[in-house]
Amino acid sequence: MKVEQIYTGCLAHAAYYIENNGEAAVFDPLREVEPYLERAKKDNAKIKYVFETHFHADFVSGHLDLQKKAGSEIVFGPNAKPNYEAIVAEDNQIFNVGSYKVKVIHTPGHTMESTTYMLMDEQGKEHGIITGDTLFIGDVGRPDLAQHVVSDLTEEKLAGHLYDSLRNKILPLSDDLIIYPNHGAGSACGKMMSKETTDTLGNQKKVNYALQEMTKDEFIEALLKGLTTPPGYFPQNVLMNIKGYESLDSVMDRATQALDPVAFEAAANETAALVLDTRDAADFAKGYIPNSINIGLEGSFAQWVGEMIPSVKQEILLVTYPDKEEEAITRLSRVGYDNTIGFLKGGFESWKNSGNEYETIQRIGPKEFEKAYNEEKPLVIDVRKKSEFDSEHIIGALNIPLNEINQHLAEIPKDKPFMVHCAGGYRSMIAASILKQRGWDDFVDIVGGFEEVAENTSVAKSDYVCPTTML
């Protein structure tokens, strides 16, 4: 049986495509559906079903556009209550895709409608399970997301449901089944996911901490330990997936408005739009439109947009490299940010060449940092995650994780200089742009972040502490 995994690295997301005898099915599709339509066209097949493992929190699914464009039927598992036409399947219900069969296995825990789909080939042999966010490679789905939509679904209750689902529905299955999860390492939907994107169930029974023998209370404690606060856009995406959303075609039509510098400035002044600059950190630092925020398209763009822009309804004006506008709009819409109202025609260079005011951010390399650190002892602000900071950090540095920076602005001085860094320079430039927008000016960004400092300076050899190792 052939199962095609369609993996999107920036979201650590896996969709799946199967086809047999002219009928196809897609599982957990991304917002832009053209790749699935083209894939089915290549097979001369009709996409009969769109199977959803649950109402996703970290992206907006493409099920509604596939329903509209391909005539596909949308399938959810038990307990789902979508606000649009869909099949809400029963536990153990079987769907035919050509001569293949797809069996519904209700596995609540990540959410109450969470469902695993068993794939069976032409002979009826069980091939694998598409597990959604129920079971990952090395991990299981976090149980604290649904409570942000339904308050009485506490994380303890959901973790208990997940324990039962794994023990009663997953563990009894054959060891040779292939696991096809919805996410891999880098997703915020779990905490210990492997970089591998498939495995056998038998191997996961051996190595996955959540599948080891333990009581329900022990499982709940292990699952909840170390969970970080989910990104703020997660519950907003869940509601979009439940209630429905605007077609991506309409979003693109509205967003792909090329604005010259005069029109762009007028739009920025006349609306509440955020100016989002998606160029890389080095180019942004050399010159950017005042009050714009930098989130580079070449990094974990969608995830950081979701972390740093509180509302998916926020109007956005884009600054991109030429010919990157549609990619930026698409990636914004993947996580529900559908209100881009235009982009700067010709990119930042057109703004600069028109004689408009622009700002810069001062940056220094690791050697300059070493000299300043030894001679001036400036405040160093580390915007990496707490776990990264706890592993190793520059002595005296203040840890303010990027996704928490807006809650800790009072800790950042305006009356003395400081330095900002992350691991490699991507997150620190996001932080720098936010600080500039909020009125901070007397600081520098460290090029290459902690990685470059550790590799190229004596500061890193003698002046950073590694608590984990010391313990």
UniProtKB/TrEMBL annotation:
Metal-binding recorded as keyword = yes
**CDD domains linked:** POD-like_MBL-fold, RHOD
Q: Which UniProt keywords apply?
A: Metal-binding
Taxonomically, the superkingdom here is Bacteria
Please verify whether the record's keywords include Cytoplasm.
Answer: no
**What region holds the Rhodanese domain?**
269-360, 374-458
What is the name attached to this protein's record? Rhodanese-like domain-containing protein
- Origin species, per record, is Euzebyella saccharophila
